[in-house]
Design a protein that fits this description.
Layout lengths: L2 H24 L3 H14 L4 H13 L3 H14 L4 H13 L3 H14 L4 H27 L6 H17 L9 H10 L2 E8 L5 H15 L3 H14 L4 H13 L3 H14 L7 E8 L1
Helix pairs in contact: 1-2, 2-3, 3-4, 3-5, 4-5, 5-6, 5-7, 6-7, 7-8, 8-9, 8-13, 10-11, 11-12, 12-13
């Protein structure tokens, strides 16, 4: 048989093997696909598509270290393959290497700007990175030697922002401790308000809430300030106190939302100070 004839037989054999591998992959028979693809790569180590498919199989079978190796071979052989870069990003992400994952998603988008999955995962990964940075900053401040009220204010902001960006952030586990350290430094913030009949019930609810804060009656704080919000919703000190009641009552997500509302209403709010309405004539 001539050399060209032998090459034709080999190529046909590879095509048939690859077709069987794709069929196994489509049927989610990953062990079979891995076996066939490994056989293909034994005879054609520069087959970028086979490396890419093998990497996918390893991802699907929770073997990210092997997926990483296969997908690195895929992008080395074919640097323009957007899907290989995307899957490599998934492998890095599974292993917690978020910066490398984001870089892979960016390369996938450079190769194929309309790659929707790469765009979606890049957005998610960048959010996770931002959440992690806030978390690390918050922990550093929270556990600094003798943190000041200013340190704890910054810590609470950072931890709340981390939890707001990523609901599964470990910052949620530190919010209660941070809140209690702030309560230990609490001071009164006078809120002068002109006495009017329209504000009478609101002021009474706020007074009950403030007194409940003093005695650490967090259920009472919640009830009183919830009532106050029914009359008007623009007071940062009300949302501030509610946040403390929520976190003490185990409602962390509500606490985060309340504190973020505080920062929307008053970005410079001092979280160590609890508002006390002072009616003036």
């Amino acid at each position: 048989m001539s050399s060209s004839g032998r090459d034709g037989v080999v190529n046909q054999d590879l095509k048939e093997k690859f077709a069987r591998a794709v069929d196994a992959l489509n049927r989610a028979d990953f062990p079979a696909a891995i076996e066939i693809l490994s056989d293909i790569l034994g005879g054609d180590s520069e087959n970028a598509e086979a490396w890419c498919r093998l990497g996918l199989c390893y991802l699907e079978t929770s073997q990210p270290d092997l997926a990483l190796e296969a997908l690195m071979r895929a992008v080395k052989t074919d640097p323009g393959d957007a899907t290989a870069h995307y899957l490599l990003g998934n492998a890095y992400g599974t292993m917690g290497q978020l910066e490398k994952a984001a870089a892979c998603y960016r390369r996938a988008l450079e190769a194929e700007p309309q790659h929707s999955k790469a765009e979606e995962f890049l957005i998610k990964t960048e959010s996770l990175l931002e959440s992690r940075e806030h978390y690390r900053a918050g922990l550093k401040l929270l556990y600094s030697a003798e943190p000041t009220a200013h340190d704890l204010n910054r810590a609470l902001r950072a931890l709340a922002q981390s939890a707001a960006i990523f609901d599964g952030s470990p910052a949620r586990d530190n919010l209660l401790e941070c809140a209690r350290k702030l309560v230990a430094l609490e001071s009164e913030l006078a809120i002068p308000v002109k006495a009017t009949p329209e504000l009478e019930k609101w002021a009474a609810a706020c007074e009950r809430g403030f007194q409940c804060v003093r005695f650490k009656n967090w259920a009472g704080v919640r009830a009183a300030y919830d009532e106050a919000l029914g009359y008007r919703a623009q007071d940062a000190f009300v949302h501030h106190a509610l946040g403390f009641s929520f976190v003490e009552l185990g409602e962390t997500s509500d606490a985060v939302r309340a504190w973020l509302r505080v920062l929307e209403l008053d970005p410079g709010y001092d979280f160590a100070r609890f508002g006390h309405v002072q009616l003036v004539k």
